[in-house]
Amino acid sequence: MIIKNTLPQIKAAFSDGAFDLARWRQYANGISPTLAQKCLDDIAGYDFQKEIVPVVQWALAQDLSPLARSFAAAVSAWEANASSLFSAEPEITVVLYLGLCSGAGWATELDGRPAVLLGVEKILELNWQSEQDIKGLLFHELGHLWHQQRHDLSRNTEDVRQRAVLQLYREGVAMVCEQILCGDETFFHQNKDGWLDWCTENFPAIRADFLRRLVNGERVQDYFGDWCSFRGHSDVGYFLGCMFIKHLRLTYDLQEIAALPYDTLERELFRFLGD
């Protein structure tokens, strides 16, 4: 695995603390000749000056040394635990970089290789720079890449139910992989301010509501993303997805789960939600 910590390059590129798109392009293209355009394409639907620039500018004013320490600790934890999930050293590139708000973690491809992009500006905005946060974020995105290597997850569908099933499946597998790499089957990087206790106590209601939405063809975005919430709690879908994959592991091994055909997946999910 190739690790690229570009915090020193960020300091050099923006030594005056002022964000400049031309300098950012030069910095990003120094990491990869395709990175700058990849990020710009990803945020094409946003108001760059109002939604992107203020976040990046604010991030440049922050102390990056705690994040540097957390990233180093997360990489060390990965090196110690990688064999618990990956059978061989994966050909993956991990980049800690100043992005354009594409996400704190992004499992994607860069220069023909699977890649995890960790966006400094979003990590800081979400206050996810602790060692536990960065370890969870890195391991979660690596879990997505592990899954993608075993299943064609590029399926595009206009069917609301299928999108919901696949999203819960993907995030559930990544969450279980994260726990495996952490060596802790109870670990959730989202667990702050009683989040896990609330999810556990409300598990029957969470299952019932998700099932109702699937049956009625309703969107499930409330369950995913820090900007959304279900009954006042964000990221509840990561808990539900993780519990679903753990349920499947009573019948299948993780390799089999990672490659389940859609029809089997949907049937098993309805059974799980209806129990």
Q: Separation of termini?
A: 41 Å
> Major beta sheet, specifics?
4 strands, mixed
Shape summary: globular
| Mean pLDDT, all residues | 92
The residue fraction in helices comes out at 55-70%
Radius of gyration: 19 Å
Query: What fraction strand?
Result: 5-15%
Query: How many DSSP E strands?
Result: 4
Count the DSSP helices: 13
The helix/strand class is alpha/beta
Poorly predicted spans: none
Which descriptors would you attach to this protein?
single chain, 275 residues, alpha/beta, 8% strand
How does this model look, in words?
Helices cover 56% and strands 8% of the residues. With 275 residues, it is α/β, with parallel strands linked by helices. A 4-stranded mixed sheet has the order 1-2-4-3. α8 packs across α13. The chain is globular, with a radius of gyration of 19 Å. The mean pLDDT is 92.
Topology overview:
Elements: E1 2-5, H1 7-13, H2 21-31, H3 35-42, H4 48-60, H5 65-81, E2 93-97, E3 105-110, E4 113-119, H6 120-125, H7 131-148, H8 160-182, H9 195-201, H10 203-216, H11 236-248, H12 254-258, H13 262-274
Parallel strand pairs: 1-2, 2-4
Antiparallel strand pairs: 3-4
